[in-house]
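Most newcomers find our protein records easier to grasp once they have seen one. There is nothing in a record beyond a sequence line and a structure line. Getting from the letters to the tokens is the skill we practise here. An example says more than a description, so a record of this kind follows:
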Amino acid sequence: MKAPELGIKLGVFKHGKKNSIADVKGVKVGHVSLIKGEGKLIPGKGPVRTGVTAILPHEGNIYKEKLLANVFVMNGYAKPIGLIQVKELGTLETPIILTNTLAVGTAADALVEYILEQNEDIGVSTGSVNPVVMECNDSYLNDIRGKHVKKEHIFETLKNAKADFDEGAVGAGTGMSAFEFKGGIGSSSRVVEIEGRKYTTGALVLTNFGKREDLTIAGVPVGLELRDWPGKGGEGKGSIIIVIATDVPLTARQLYRVAKRGVIGLARTGGYAYNGSGDIIFAFSTAQRIKHHQKEIIDIKSTPDNVLSPLFKATAETVEEAIINSLLQAKAMTGRDNHIRHALPKEDLLKIMKKYGRLEKG
């Protein structure tokens, strides 16, 4: 269950129908989860607790019809691929792959093959391709040295992408931790009205960060209340990847502004960007497409900056809830060396929220 179903209200804007990033028309998400073995770590053999998540930004050929995009790096303790060109050109030309830190090279190689298969002109009559891959380190639960993510897993993830997708300990989130509970994939969306027109913004997060005592939900110090709950460990090190999609017509410059607002949502949950945390926010708009072979002057639509405040607020709300949803939907998991990440205890959580007067029902 997500936060609204539990009576936990985060923000003021209405949700989209699915309350996920897929409420932005054309966006799809796919997962492959890899779970194998148990007990003592044998490097290269397991236990395996990892996976891959793919975000398809639209249903067409993303290389031929690029989307405007940008990225904000809050803390750069991270190993992504493809962000430099996105910042330079302001466009996204591949699906986005999320996985574990040591699978980034494999994922990028597979993503290149995927795009090459669809575009025979790459490297012949046109340039190369810029694969976008981002990561978090799942080694607390996973045999990360085993490099268990293979190319076929990337292809499968891209193939099975859909609008209705699972959240929690799935895909790239299989082995991830958040606030020393089980974390993973979370998503949410908001509908925002700008100058009389309704738009949607959605976020998908890969959570792998946070110290237990920092966890905050709707302003309530949940982590402090649960600081003695079993399963602490790992010193709260880790990272978060945030992907924001919207159908508001925006330039790449404006998408950088939107991406920065994702940090507000992160901070509301208790994210402090500790030294070992890679905090990256990637934002794209589906409102207009840039033709790869375009030579004429491009007519790019832009929503005036002075009316974007509602979008900024909705973005922060969306990211905040997506992070909390990643916790609420993740089931407990035992991984390598019998390390365990407990699920956020919902019954205790609801008692705490009620104690602070922040529960809407029950």
In short: The chain has a mean pLDDT of 96.
